[in-house]
Amino acid sequence: MLLIEKRAAPDAVATERLVLPFELRCKTRLRTRLESGEEAGIFLERGSVLRGGDLLAANDGRIVEVVAAPEMVMEVCSDNALTLARAAYHLGNRHVAVQLQPGRLRFARDHVLSEMVRGLGLDVVETSAAFEPESGAYGGHGGHAHGHSADGEGRGARIHDMMLKQRTS
User: Fold this and answer.
1) Domain annotation covers residue 140
2) How many CB atoms lie within 10 A of CB 30?
């Protein structure tokens, strides 16, 4: 099994590819397979979130490029920036991961959230795309007292922790 425990330098040249959906790119301990089929174990610093284009250094010296896998997401497109901002606000208020692009929002498949966004006057379609949600404005997510992490430590969600890790590196 290929062991991966650290990130590579940004100018490193990848020889392998690791294709993962967003949910798995949020895990810091993961047994997976490279695109070639080779088994790999990822053991990164807790709170890390992998993004498409990130480079990882395997213990044998190989460089692995992270690729954001296409996955089924909900997509909203509009020329009305205010209406898109309202939708992003309401999704964010529910702590939903949202990908922002000019004239477009993406969020994970959820029929209840889709109906909420439709209620704001927007059309919602299901599509297959790489999902790269925003990391959040607060590195430590210290703005309020309740935690959102899956690890039960009461820290901010891992997507928020990523920003803190980048600032302290």
Assistant:
1) no
2) 17
Residue reference for tokens 């089924």 = 72
Instruction: State which residues form the domain around 55.
Output: 2-68
Residue with tokens 């088994």: 39
* CATH code of 118's domain: 3.30.70.790
Encode pLDDT of 40-81 as tens digits. 999 999 988 999 999 999 999 999 999 999 999 999 999 999
pTM metric for this prediction: 0.76
Smallest CA-to-CA distance from 47 within 162, 147, 142 is with: 162
CB burial class (10 A; 0-12, 13-18, 19+) of residue 160? buried
Helix (H) or strand (E) run with residue 23 in it: helix 22-25
Q: Which residue type sits at 160? A: H
